[in-house]
Design goal:
The complex is a heterodimer of chains A (302) and B (305). Chain A has 302 residues and is mainly alpha-helical. Chain A has helices at residues 13-44, 51-69, 73-100, 107-129, 153-175, 177-187, 189-194, 199-221, 233-246, 251-271, 274-291; strands at 143-145, 150-152. A two-stranded antiparallel sheet of chain A has the order 1-2. Chain A is globular. In chain B, the strands form 2 sheets. A two-stranded antiparallel sheet of chain B has the order 1-4. Chain B has helices at residues 2-15, 18-43, 52-69, 73-95, 101-120, 122-125, 148-171, 173-183, 185-190, 195-221, 232-244, 251-267, 274-287, 291-299, and strands spanning 131-132, 139-140, 143-144, 223-224. With 305 residues, chain B is an all-alpha fold. Classes of the chains: A mainly alpha (302), B mainly alpha (305). Chain A binds chain B through residues 47, 99, 102-103, 107-109, 111-113, 115-124, 126-127, 131, 237, 240, 244, 273, 275-276, 278-279, 282-283, 285-287, 289-291, 293, 302, and chain B through 47, 49, 94-95, 97-98, 100-102, 104-106, 109-110, 112-113, 116-117, 119-120, 235, 238, 242, 270-275, 277-283, 285-286, 289.
Chain lengths: 302, 305
């Protein structure tokens, strides 16, 4: 095909394929992180601006745990995969109890409070962890040979793990008693409370679960990227984009939108410069919010 | 009383030691930014998370006009203010279609796009590194704005004009309607006012104040950089206003002074000085939603405007 009319230089097909693969890995982690944000928004009706910092904490804790344990990389990584989300979840539950609950979950006040939490978590990590990016070794080293290039097998494991976790969350929400209680609280907070559901504890649990999902996503991706105290910004922005495009509080929409954003980010950044891609994505999302506040896939008013 | 505040600021200019003299000039410019933020947040009840874009519009409008087009400071300054107001109009028409949390996120997104844009055109803006405006160009009429004493007095003058304009605005009928919208938008609509028009007006005025602060910052301190477009500078005016007292005329000045010196002091102790910003935000929203002046007004002095 003749591509000479195309205003951008067409990348080599191998590069494009690499873009697609990177896009899929990004989508998987993004879907987990955005799912956390979406759950919190859906059930508690609050926007958690500190979500990216919970993600960052997950990565930083993964570094801390693996460097303390030593031995075979897989051992430290497995421990990190369990410990980091639990610690982050506990911190989230504590901040819910200490701050958000006292604000009666007013939407505007909680945004201001979570901005404050963002600064506190970020700056404390800077103080204890330092300003340097730290690597975490992948649990195994295994490369898959593709026709054009070798590809890290670990990245496929990331995608698989993310899919399993998402199925897990879906089962939890749709098939268990806990999920039923969460959905009841989402549907009508006061009615749920009248039926004896401990709304306070449900909220603390949901906030912890949301933060824990972000932390798991970060632990999974940290062998590919590096842990850094400012790494929470991009996932926060992208999760926002995903949640808004997918429809606030819609589980299915979140996954579809994560795939859309992750893939297009992977492909677009091989065509345009990443900054321009981000500008376009951000403006697009602002426009979606202005003209279709219920999201592209959602039907309910936000 | 407001005359007294300005007189006190002028006197301070002669007695302050050199370091605080420079810091205070900076504070006054940032206080103009906070005053503008308060018009939107404190009086009209709209919480924007994207005011850095208006500040940056003023800063870059003035800075680039001087740097690239060779305009004089006297021409570039009003141009910067106009840039802020124009951006406010465009963003307002779009963002005011949303309410509450939607408005906060849309303004945040627009500001983020603005920040990335300032990085994208690195050729002109020099991105994070920024550029300086040559000292020779920083003069209006015979006034050399890079001179510390002149700079301080110009900052006081700017603050004074901004404060009086705001006082006049909030006491005018339009200002009353803005407060009515904050208290109950639906009822204001029932009374026959068009809330969208007044909200848009508040946003444009607020953006013009932010643009003026940005333009003045560029001319007075001669530095233009992308940092001023970052989210940090959208959060700071919110913090200044919350601390000083939302919906008060001089609260933003008090908030700016306290917060500036608090951050200044902690940054001499630790690199994690933004910790103070976070703790202050959480503490304020939890225990003192009305800020310093707002609390004083409620308890002892109902006459404070």
């Amino acid at each position: 095909m003749d591509w000479s009319w195309f205003p951008f230089e067409m990348p080599h097909p191998a590069l494009l394929w690499a873009g697609v693969l990177e896009g899929i890995v990004l989508s998987a982690v993004l879907a987990l992180t955005a799912l956390g944000l979406s759950l919190v928004f859906g059930v508690m009706r609050i926007v958690n601006v500190a979500h990216g910092e919970f993600y960052m904490l997950g990565a930083v804790l993964a570094y801390a745990v693996t460097s303390v344990i030593g031995g075979h990389p897989a051992l430290g990584f497995t421990v990190a995969l369990i410990v980091a989300p639990l610690l982050v979840g506990a911190l989230a539950a504590a901040s819910d109890w200490l701050v958000l609950k006292r604000l009666n979950y007013e939407p505007e006040a909680t945004i201001v409070a979570t901005i404050g939490m963002l600064y506190i978590i970020q700056q404390l990590s800077l103080e204890f962890f330092g300003p340097d990016a730290r690597p975490v070794v992948a649990p195994f080293d295994w490369r898959i040979r593709l026709p054009w290039f070798g590809y890290s097998g670990y990245k496929f494991v990331v995608v698989g793990a993310a899919i399993l976790l998402m199925i897990g969350v879906w089962v939890l929400m749709a098939r268990t008693r806990i999920g039923l209680i969460m959905r009841a609280t989402q549907f009508d907070r006061e009615m749920a409370s009248a039926f004896g559901i401990p709304v306070d504890r449900v909220f603390a649990g949901v906030f912890a679960l949301g933060a824990g999902l972000a932390a798991i996503g970060a632990v999974l991706i940290v062998p590919v990227q590096q842990a850094h105290y400012l790494m929470g910004g991009d996932p926060l922005l992208l999760s926002f984009i995903v949640v808004i495009i997918g429809g606030l509080g819609s589980l299915k929409g979140t996954v579809v939108a994560a795939l859309l954003i992750g893939l297009s980010d992977g492909i677009i950044s091989t065509l345009f410069t990443p900054t321009l891609a981000k500008i376009l994505a951000t403006l697009l999302v602002a426009m979606v919010l202005v003209f279709r506040p219920q999201g592209l896939f959602g039907t309910r008013a936000a | 009383m407001h005359g007294g505040v300005i007189a006190a600021l002028v006197v301070l200019g002669f007695v302050l030691p050199e370091y605080h003299h420079g810091a205070m000039a900076r504070i006054l410019v940032l206080a103009v930014f906070a005053l503008g933020y308060n018009v939107l947040f404190g009086y009209t009840g709209l919480l924007s998370l994207g005011h850095a874009m208006f500040f940056a519009a003023g800063l870059y409008g003035t800075g680039l006009a001087m740097q690239q087009l060779g305009w004089s400071a006297a021409a570039a300054l009003p141009f910067g203010i106009a840039c802020g107001a124009a951006l406010g109009l465009v963003v307002g028409v779009l963002a005011l279609r949303t309410i509450g949390v939607g408005f906060m996120i849309v303004t945040l997104m627009f500001a983020q796009a603005g920040y990335l844009t300032s990085l994208y055109f690195t050729e002109y803006t020099r991105g994070d590194e920024g550029f300086t405006i040559p000292q020779a160009a920083r003069a209006i009429g015979g006034l050399d704005l890079s001179n510390a004493d002149t700079r301080y007095l110009v900052a006081v003058a700017l603050f004074g004009v901004a404060m009086l304009l705001k006082l006049w605005l909030v006491r005018s009928p339009a200002g009353r309607v803005m407060v009515a919208i904050r208290e109950n938008e639906e009822r204001t609509r029932m009374l026959g006012f068009d809330p969208f028009r007044y909200k848009l007006m508040a946003l444009v005025v607020s953006a013009a104040f932010a643009g003026a602060a940005g333009a003045a910052y560029g001319v007075l301190f001669g530095y233009v950089g992308a940092t001023f477009a970052s989210i940090q500078y959208s959060i700071l005016p919110l913090l200044y206003v919350l601390l000083g007292g939302a919906g008060t005329v001089i609260g933003p000045l008090i908030g700016t002074v306290l917060m500036f010196y608090l951050v200044d002091f902690t940054s001499s102790l630790t690199s994690a000085y933004n910790l103070v910003v976070g703790v202050a935000l959480v503490a304020l929203i939890l225990v003192a939603r009305k800020g310093i002046l707002g609390t004083i007004r409620d308890k002892w002095a109902r006459w404070i405007p």
